[in-house]
Amino acid sequence: GEIPYGVTVRAVNDIGQEGQSNTTVFFTREDVPPTPANISVLRLNGTHMNISWSLIPITKARGFIQSYFILYQENGNRMRQISSVTVSATDSSVVIDGLDPDKSY
Prior knowledge:
mainly beta
């Protein structure tokens, strides 16, 4: 997976070593990010729900998270359309509105 590395360089001879270079940070090649953890859904009222999750730490992200993509659908109806919303990589929650108050999601 994606891991950040810091690299510094020092010159060394028989007498000793001098100071080191500035640290340069680089990342290995990106991979598919892990699944977000601590997902929570709270129905705010008949037509709104709040979905939240823990942000994926950069040390575990396997790359740079660009966004979170949330899918939701009415429960018990596989033929029902799947809806989605995309939020910023810095967001850890979203409020979904326009829900049918008589349905379970």
